[in-house]
Write a structure and sequence with these properties.
With about 650 residues, this protein is α+β, with helices and mostly antiparallel strands. The protein has three domains: about 5-30 and about 350-405 and about 445-655, Collagenase (Catalytic Domain), CATH 3.40.390.10; about 40-95 and about 320-350 and about 410-440, no CATH class; about 110-300, Neutral endopeptidase , domain2 (Neutral endopeptidase, domain 2), CATH 1.10.1380.10. Helices cover about 55% and strands about 5% of the residues. The protein has 27 helices and eleven strands. Strands 2-3-5-4 form a four-stranded mixed beta sheet. A three-stranded mixed beta sheet has the order 6-8-7, with helices on one face. It has a two-stranded antiparallel sheet with strand order 1-11. Strand 7 and strand 8 form a beta hairpin. Helix 21 (about 485-500) packs across helix 24. The longest helix is centred in the last third of the chain and has 26 residues, at about 550-575. The protein is globular.
Length: about 650
Amino acid sequence: MIHGISVRNMDPSVKPGDNFFLYANGGWIDRTQIPADRASVGVFTTLLDKSRKNVAAIVKEAAQSKAPARSNERKIADLYASYMDKSAIASLGLKPLQPGLAEIEAIRDKSELATMMGRLLRADVDPLNNTNFHTLNLFGLWTSPGFRDSSVYAVYLLQGGITLPSRDYYLSDSAHMQEIRRKYVQHIAAMLRLAGYSQPAARAAKILELEKAIAKVQKSLADSEIVQNANNVWTPAEFSAKAPGLDWSAYFAGAGLAHQPRFYVWQPSAFTGEAALVASTPLDTWKDWLAFHLLEQYGPYLSPSFAQEDFTFEGKALSGVEQEQPRWQRAVDLVNDDLGDAVGQLYAQKYFSPRARAEAQDMVAHLIAAYHKRLEALTWLTPATKAEALKKLDSLYVGIGYPETWRDYSTYKVRPRDLFGNVWRAGLWKYQYNIDRIGRPVDRQEWWMEPQTVNAVNLPLQDALNFPAAILQPPFFDPKAPAADNYGAIGTIIGHEISHTFDAEGSAFDAEGRLRNWWTAADHQHFEQEAKALEDQYSSYQALPGLHVNGPQTIDEDIADLGGVAAAFEAYHDALNGRMEPKIGGFTGDQQFFIAFGQNWGSKARPAALRRQVLTDSHAPAEFRADMVRNSDAWYTAFSVTPGEKLYLAPEQRVRIW
């Protein structure tokens, strides 16, 4: 096993100053093929595969343990078994969903339509943590600390109603998007045909037109990321006044929210537009839309014909994937989705040592100290703003590996031969979990990711960070590797998440998690100028011919990458305390640091998947994340980068924020 940077993965024929991504990863890219069941492959997917295998081992142990009924271990085993029982699934066909489809068919008027829409509301959006603004329901629900009062949980409603990944898929006139829509309407018709609906092609055409209309009134991802625009509190009465067309009383009654006194409305204009469409669109079209969305949401858990049609469109057409992943992997993903903390508790015990946790905590301490020094040294921040920033940093809760408390699944019923029922009840369980905590005191140490998740997150409403156990392993984190590698790999990721505390989104929240402006006008103007320079830098990058990165959409993540590299480099040198790092492959410690950062982003993606990322993700493509180093003075020194090389920026053009 390699402990440190992988020289084999590099391409020394590429100048680091021309294309740092290829310099760090070109060897790996040349010899790597994207598996037929993947849209992309890279460091993150490698760790995801490892995490899945570890979870599969946990599932196997749970199945063999003869755990008592209703225990977490029994639920894990039974949920996995229900997905793997293909004969039971096939024998049921459409039967599990028929009662729901019959209820939709029985809708007689727009009031009953609103009630059904409310009943299908789910807690399936997470706008701050995963930038997931997409839901198949007309609207999506999220509960989190309130923007105005972060001491208690509040309820947020967000735009929804479309099946394709974003509004751009409906509104773009490009040849690619027109082809996607052609395949999509065929997919709608195929799903309706499988469910026994007459005239499926005609119904499908109307559903597509309705979703196009919904897309037109929705806000873009870049607009939706501006949290100040989401700070809108409506009472139930105000919904009828500001968004007429939907019977809101019936909707909230159906959703179990009839007694909720107020809601945060994330995109007010979308609510106005979507409610108007409820009034203006024929009832039969809405009923077909509801039926298709139900089929789309639960098709993968019905008979093989539905699951295959779902993959043909979702996998092949949208992401370019040639074949489905093995069934056991999809079963593991389902268990992680629906019993995440139950699995996570066992995962943390089995796969994350106290030593690894202690060493990661030590790295975090060095990173926070580096940010402290950098903030204190900033000359463009006024004393008042600087004091607020340092207060946020000092208040930051950093969770390493796993949470201190776990979710209780005692009310979630799992049956070993009832896949559809298990999935349906899981959605209701998550929804009720979120509804039940509205108005209750906030747990500022609550985790939003499970230990087996290969990711990390900043939680601005809690002033907190989560670093799950699954990301704290090689090649990101290796206790046997040189400090240069660890700080360049996981250190820049830790620094990235700390930086979110002060990016365009995070800086809108104070140390208590309230949405509050604690900046002076001059400080904010300077920040916006630097952010605009970085936006322009990223908007100049072309991911595919004619498809540029959306700088305003990715700016928060780009700022976090920028700050993460700068702080991690400083923390690395502080951690050395004057020691010299040994060379690896002839590379100095500073060079290893930057190569490790570049190798974080070693990946390959299919064109369809890359296009989808550019349109729907707040993160820039991996290549351009690696090339962030062009803003670091230390990188120029480490690799002797000179004018004329493609990534070279004159000192005055390099963006420096934190």
